[in-house]
Give the backbone structure.
Amino acid sequence: MKGFIVLALLALPLLAAPANAKENLLARNWSKVDENHAELERDGRAYVLDSYIVLFEQPYYIHVRAKDGQALDATVAETLAAEYIQPRGCTQPLERRKDLDRSNGDGAERVLGFQC
């Protein structure tokens, strides 16, 4: 019985891994801007974009995902994100913040940083 309990305790973190992977991509202190949700199409592929902010701070975190679950082309993701956020939140020139970027292990989701 002790062996089973030890095995269960060792396996528990592995079961929680998928939830933690998402949590690591989107930080807990980010607030989603619900009205900025968008579903776009480019070159026959559908994408979902959402923006996140940290209250009282400047950068936008743009979460880009392909609906087909396949890896994103970094250039396409960056172009989509820039076109998406400019009319939604920028009153000054858009500045790319690559230091804020994140992506999941397979490249199917990216978070891109922008400031404006």
Summary: The mean pLDDT is 83.
